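FW: tagging you since you asked about this chain on Friday. Here's the raw sequence from the shared folder, copied in full. Didn't touch anything.
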Amino acid sequence: MKRIITTLSLALFFTGVLALGVISEGVKSIGQSFMPNAQAKDNNSSNAAILGTWRVNVTPKSFPPFQALITYTRGGGLLESNTFLPPAAATTGHGTWVKTGGHEYVATFEKFLADNPVTPTLGDPGIFRVKEIIQVNGDTYTGAASAEFCDLSGTQCVLADCGKSIGTRLAAEPPACQQ
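HL: got it, structure written out here
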């Protein structure tokens, strides 16, 4: 039974991958018309430098280094996930960013923390908030951030740590296996 389930799972996976390839090729020109490029490098947009997904190495002062993926969207939206807080302890980070000048940006995101012993908040559950100032230079960035634990209202917060970050833009790449 286990072998049948494994075989069916693999078959469904490859069918999905093939279908996605056929669909994406079929609507490629339509999709380019209606969907903005997340990795935009549009010189006409003053915010284009930060747009896209970044692989970020985070080095806190008091905790071990960890990795994060952060996506900056048009309109000032931000999504973040990382290897520091496990999924059972915190949600994906949601936030916002603004351009403050030249190639400088300020970003803030929050995660809801679960009620568990891994997250030492002011009263579990709570919010984990990160505030960062970012300098973008082409496909890399550097940042300085502070992190805090807050109550659910986000008003009573305690500084958790400060740290530095180095980000590299994630680039789209073709698959290794092509037919």
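FW: The first strand starts at residue 52 and ends at 60.
HL: agreed, and The chain has two domains: 2-34, 52-169.
FW: great, closing this out.
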